[in-house]
Amino acid sequence: xxxxxxxxxxxxxxxxxxxxxxxxxxxxxxxxxxxxxxxxxxxxxxxxxxxxxxxxxxxxxxxxxxxxxxxxxxxxxxxxxxxxxxxxxxxx
Length: 92
Prior knowledge:
By secondary structure, this protein is mainly α. It is 84% helix and 0% strand. Helix 2 packs antiparallel against helix 3.
């Protein structure tokens, strides 16, 4: 599943809007469904449910990583601004 996670994670990035990322996730979901159909998996086959679960779990994990990245970037930006203000206050 790691290769799958890497593939999906490379298809999205933090600069994309949530709607753009959701569109990528929809394509991933559709691709998995097509693969399941190609493998002739019965709709009641537990592997089908497991695969859907793993896809959703992967998407959730990627979204958590994106939120973490965006949050840390915002914190770094605020810290840099505060440092710059502190430096300009010392020069006066």
